[in-house]
Design brief:
Length: about 425
Amino acid sequence: MTPPGCSRMTAVLAVWLGKLTLLALRALGRRGNAMPGLVVEKVFPRYLATALARLPQGVVVVTGTNGKTTTTKMVATILGERYRVLTNDTGSNFVRGAITATVEHASWSGWLRYDVAVFELDEAWAVRFVERVAPQHCLLLNVMRDQLDRFGEIDTTARLLGKVAAATTGHVVLNRDDERVAALAADTAAQVSCYGVTPELRELFPNDEELYGGPVTISSVPAAVELRTLPSPSHPAATLRVDGTDHDVVLRAEGPHNAQNACGAAALGLALGLDVDTVLVGLAKVSPAFGRGQSFEVDGRRVVLQLVKNPAGFRQTLRTLDMQTPDAVVVAINDDYADGRDVSWLWDVDFAVLSGLPTRLSTAGTRAADMAVRLRYDDVAVEEIEPDLEKALRSSVRSVDDDGHVVIFSTYTAMWALHAVLQRIGTALS
């Protein structure tokens, strides 16, 4: 049924407007992940609520500072084992991105043939989203210092997530090991469950206070899903505990942070009524999300692209090197608006892990020289400083053997540019 104030014909016109805008942008060679949604929102502001009200299982919102894109993909893949899932898998995580995904996947007659929508949303835009559409379920990941020029201090970000929790009508899943997130249980009338890691692993997953020297705290809150062991070269599966039983799952998305994200996604799947076996099957199918551990082959070498955007995320992503030592590492830092203009956060990342690696290291991007200076303070030798991203990539690939392995740690806009280059000169592996 069409909600009051938005007729069936209006909804159809909104879909046509969005689809035609999207087609025009694609014809011009642009991604068009946000503009169609912005146009529809301006002309038909009630469209999104109209369209999503028809979904039998409602809407799931995934938000937090780190891990949104990969965790959203995990949730969508898990729920896809039972339901038809609509999601904004391009990483466009403003309200306009959700609108674009909705009009793109609707039929020209306006129908959405899906059971549930799973949307990744930026912390601030998640609040604007829930003012339009009350989610049935939400997964709140963490609160870290990120883009202080946008969000201010992290207590502000926590309050934003609290508004999302308060608007959720069915089930809220919280990270018990982030004290600011765990406290949001008091902000919602919805059912609450938590996920977390075993006490033995807690120091590997610091919350914001712990990241800056605070003592590690162990939560006594029960976890619907708990991470018991991390993947290792000798045992490549992560072990998740559900209802007192341990289950192994091999995750294609590498890194300790993704094992933690998998627990959150699994807890959300259980909250929607899926059984443990179905959840584990879904998790095992999840390939790395766009730019988050994606692999490419370039001239016989494997190149892995890893997004980094704040101290906590960078520190966790560096730990992907625990599983395999690359032959070359590129750290690509831009300072465009989408990256955050203030890159002083790089001084809060511990790069000492790079100093002991037998690896060629270079820096790239608009702040390549600044990054090289930062690394020098951690006694990390930089062999090349090349602001041009494509030149830096090609130089690193040429520097390693035919079966070599290159890892690129990249901020957001540099990641998009490098991804385009890799698609042009290489072959996607995952």
